[in-house]
Structure formats: structure tokens, C-alpha cells
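User: Sequence in, structure out. Go.
Assistant: Echoing your sequence, followed by the C-alpha cells.
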Amino acid sequence: MSKEESLENLYKKIDATSKTRFHASRRLKLHTKCSTYTVVLISLSLILISLMQTYGLGNNINSDLVGLIQVFSAIAVLVYSLLIDKHDYSNSSEKMYSCASRLGELKKKMHPLMRKEHDQEKYDELRLEYDEVLRLYETHSNNDFRADYIQAKLEMPENYTVTGIDWWKAQFYIYIGLLINFSSYLLVIGIIGWVICWLWFGTTPVST
């Protein structure tokens, strides 16, 4: 029996995949919330700009650029709505969670066998079940994010030794990866905040 065919190695693979899928599920669920809130925020900014025009609020509210901002914001709402529908973060998150749950059940089934003598027939059966679960649910490559796997490794000290500077590097990689992954929402919030401040407090209005 090779090391690759041991129950311990199979259990390690299943454990890592399960934890990775759980992290992916949580990340995609957060994407669902952020995408929805972003659309709401852009829509509210459009309403606010319209109210500012109606009541003449803001130093730059009569600028020629206001119409352009409103048109661009309306298009942004449409584009974000299409992106949300395309990526379907909510459904992908549910699939990841279901896959992780199935793998968790498989881990429970394997645990009592870990201390017993190796049974090749049982190993083949469990390996086939593991492969079947991966085929049944959406593969992680469709929503690949290496930080999910690194987070899973940090939760498995019995299998992966990550200490000292390597631990700090892993944490840094995770936070930077998440920051980049969610940077589009931060960018939109920043742009909306800057536009509202310019319309309200700007000191050099563009004359019509």
C-alpha cells in the first residue's frame, strides 16, 4: 500500500477540500450581500441627486456634469444587476456549502476506520464516493480563490505545519487576496462618496 492510497491521506484530502469549500461558501455569500448593497447604494445616490436638484442643494448641483453622472449611475445599476445574475453568488454559495456538508458526512464515516487495518476495498469505495461528491457539485475552479485553501490549511495544524514567518505570510496573503477580491465594492463606495461631496461642497461649480 502506497502512502497515496492510505486512508489517512484520503481523509486529509477530504478535510482540506471540505474546509476550503466552507470558506468559499462564506466568501460568496458575502459577495451576494455586497453586490446587493452596492446596487442599493447607487440607486439611493441617484435619488439623492434628484432631490438635491429639486431643492437646489449643493454648490455644484447645477453643473453640466450632473446629467452625465445620473446617466452613468443608471447604467452602473443595470451593469451590476447583470453581473449579479451572471455570477449567481447566492446559488454558488449554497452549492459550496452543500458540497462541504457532504464531505463532512464522509469524514465522519471514515473516522472510525482510521485506527483499523487498511482495507483496500473500503478505501476504493470511499475514494469513489469522494470523487462522486466533487462531480455532483460545482467545482471550486469556477470560483477559484487560493486564499480559501490557505485558510483551510491554517485550520489543519495536524496536517500542515505553518508557523513563524510562514504563518504571517499566509495571513498577509489571505487579507490581501480578500481586499483585491472585494476591491470593486470599495471603489464604487469611494466614487459615490466623492461625487456626493463634490456636488454638495464643491467650491468651483461648472457653469451651464
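User: And one key feature?
Assistant: The mean pLDDT is 87.
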